[in-house]
């Protein structure tokens, strides 16, 4: 028996990491990829690829339902925040989908709403306010402005000269200086929390390029996660991004309610959230976490070479290629 798994957003490092992790399981899986561009770096990892509209487009829903029907999809794993929100709304019309409750996906998609939830639960979080609506909570020299629903560090302005021109689609936060960490956890169907698993990291253009396993912050993070899981309907993989100040204080500033970009790296240290997702939602097996390893990782660029092919000839993993 073969299972058909649909992975969205295969043009990005999150989707490609998910695909690589599933392939490493060596299971009876057919991998169907979707992306807003027909040709991307994820094509070679898929058995078939479809181009889809952006998640917010009116045509997205029908396009995804049609793909699921035609390919007899058994499990959907999204890799972008916008798609988690839309897929959570469509749950009753789709195969099994690796998303949290719609309320959780919507809250964590919006950085302002995320700040309000942390405030309500009296959890630490970067002081946040809406530019030109709320009273600023930090001087401009200590302010960072972000799109409320942005991703990948797009549209971020650090220490702006003025807040004029930033509308209600933006959120401002106090800019905390220190080490950036990303901490992942997994909530099983029975409510058990696996993790946290934490990297201290460096980023380029919003993507982790250098990281090391860091366990000393986990006791504090575990308490934050415990409160979140008790009050917000989180299922499956989730990720907290935070700054560790020189004083040792841990200040979260964003939550990704999905499998996040370091999934391919952290699986090599024992935090196998992609594998657990497949085990739990597709194979009906209970996921188990063993002790997480120590170490570090550096991300590199590699090339997918298609000899004697035009770009229009590139389809999926069946198109002859080599990795260099």
From TrEMBL:
One of its GO terms (molecular function) is metal ion binding. Residues 110-262 form the ATP-grasp fold PylC-type domain. Residues 5-90 form the PylC N-terminal domain. It holds the Pfam family ATP-grasp_3. This is Carbamoyl phosphate synthase-like protein. The lineage of its organism: Bacteria, Pseudomonadati, Bdellovibrionota, Bdellovibrionia, Bdellovibrionales.
């Amino acid at each position: 028996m073969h299972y058909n798994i649909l992975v969205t957003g295969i043009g990005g490092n999150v989707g490609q990491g998910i695909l690589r992790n599933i392939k490493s399981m060596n299971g009876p899986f057919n991998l169907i990829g979707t992306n807003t561009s027909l040709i991307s770096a994820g094509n070679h990892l898929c058995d078939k690829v479809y181009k889809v509209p952006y998640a917010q487009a009116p045509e997205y829903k029908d396009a995804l339902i049609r793909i699921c029907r035609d390919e007899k999809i058994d499990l959907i794993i999204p890799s972008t925040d916008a798609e988690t929100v839309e897929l959570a709304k469509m749950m009753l019309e789709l195969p099994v989908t690796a998303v949290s409750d719609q309320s959780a996906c919507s809250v964590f998609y919006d950085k302002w709403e995320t700040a309000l939830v942390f405030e309500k639960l009296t959890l630490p979080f970067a002081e946040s306010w809406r530019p030109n609506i709320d009273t600023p909570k930090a001087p401009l020299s200590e302010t960072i402005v972000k799109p409320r629903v942005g991703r990948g560090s797009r549209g971020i302005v650090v220490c702006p000269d003025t807040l004029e021109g930033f509308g209600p689609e933006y959120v401002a936060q106090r800019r905390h200086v220190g080490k950036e960490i990303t901490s992942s956890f997994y909530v099983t169907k029975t409510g058990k929390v696996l993790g946290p698993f934490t990297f201290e990291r460096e980023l380029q253009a919003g993507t982790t390029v250098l990281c090391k396993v860091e366990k000393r912050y986990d006791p504090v993070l575990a308490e934050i996660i415990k409160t979140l899981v008790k009050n917000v309907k989180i299922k499956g993989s989730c990720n907290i991004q935070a700054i560790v100040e020189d004083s040792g204080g841990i200040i979260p500033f964003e939550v990704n309610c999905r499998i996040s970009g370091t999934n391919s790296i952290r699986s090599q240290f024992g935090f196998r959230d992609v594998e657990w997702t497949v085990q739990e939602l597709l194979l009906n097996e209970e996921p188990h976490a063993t002790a997480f390893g120590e170490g570090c990782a550096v991300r590199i660029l590699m090339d997918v070479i298609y000899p004697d092919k035009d770009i229009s000839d590139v389809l999926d993993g069946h198109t002859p290629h080599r990795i260099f």
